[in-house]
Amino acid sequence: MSIKQLRAFHVVALCGGFSRAAREISIGQSTLSSQVRQLEALSGVRLFERKQRGVVLTPEGQTLFEVTRRLFAAESEARAFLRCDVRRAGGHLRLAADGAFHPVQILTNLQRDRPQLTFTLSLGNSEQVIEHILNHRADVGITARLPADRRLHARPMLSMGIGVFVRADHDWAGRSSLAMKDLGGRPFVMRERGSVTREVFERNLAAHSVGVGPVLEASTPEGVRELVAGGFGLGIVADREFGYDSRLRFLPLTDARILIEEYTVCLDERRRLPLVRDFMACAESLFRPVESRITDNLTKEPQTAASTGSDSSPACQRKCTSTPANAPPCPSS
Asked: Residue 238 belongs to what domain range?
């Protein structure tokens, strides 16, 4: 058994098929297939069920895949550690998030410190973010759903209230806020099932025994925004994610007590990779101080990295402590 054969198996398992795996690592499909067959012959274990479209791991293959994930994650961590110059200058980060507003703030800070940083940003609902992390399609994620999977590492990032947004010419546009009871019978435009914003809104409705009118669904936040701007109903959004749109007005819901909790999340085996660690440290130092100041006012005890169990870089804690609007860049680790 060789590391080359294990890598061949790992990439095929990751990609779900030989042809895609061969393209991923730029070798011939026949070569890749031969390496996997050799591994199966040497071990006497069948690792894949060959299907018409792709492959499926056998139970033995699934167990080996858990091992090779740890193996190649450790290899990646070692390479990143040894390439300190590249680590400090940039790197490539694959990020999945349930909205663009917070990732942009974090990436802006991170890129100031890592001028050669490149990244891809995939947007979806919270369930899709978790799926991207588990399937190795993203290095780190931002999600409003605390994952139960023990393979994942999650850190609290911030809490958000919810509110309604309406057209600028709506009867409510001049109001400063709304109560849950005001929403009874009103038409809404919402994200699809699986959206935590929708789930939290519906839980608040149930807590106040309020029923809304007809609901239209859109698959993206942009779709919801455009339909509300078009007059098809009211929209729901987290208070820190509304941004600015001259066509619309945001109205906080003063008695919506159930909040949206946002988390940064990654595979536990990858949490110490320098770029993943720096991203999570910057997210925590950008947003958690806002939450900590509320706690501090109540307890009069300063919140520190040690008291919260954080393993953030001390330098990042020292430098990235202003509010998101004017936060400075994270320092080099």
From this structure: 162-252
